[in-house]
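Annex B. Sample input.
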Amino acid sequence: MTRTRLAARPKDRPRTTRTGGSTASVRVVRGLIGAFGALFLAGQAAAQPAAPLIQEPVAIAPGFNATLLVVDIPPAGDGPLTTAGQAGHRHPASTYAYVSKGAVVSRLGDGPERRFATGEAWSETPLQPHYIVNASRTEPAQLVVVQISKAGTTKLTEPLPK
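Annex B, continued. Sample output.
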């Protein structure tokens, strides 16, 4: 996958679409995944998701919305550096997460834990249980998240029952 470096788009400059010889839907999904990646943290009270940077209909997929946001995860401090025993969450959306700063420990469902550092990404399927913690006791982590959900979905993160 090609990594893309993005610059902020001034509000007065319209969005542009790059062409690359593939279908429009593949270009959009590749662009969202490659440029950003997903994850919206619910079970982790210390995580700080900001207001969405983008929340709009997907033009080439009527009935679906795209949400782009940044999630700041403070250092773990004395907290655990493992997802074992931690509260989890799930999303009713296809979710793509990209680590833009620091590192996290992530686990999908009953799978193994994986450490993701700056520049790495993963995806989650709709309603897949997910657990995450900051991998550092002293350094914050930051994720850029893209979620593709059915139009009308208002709650993009659901805590898992304990």
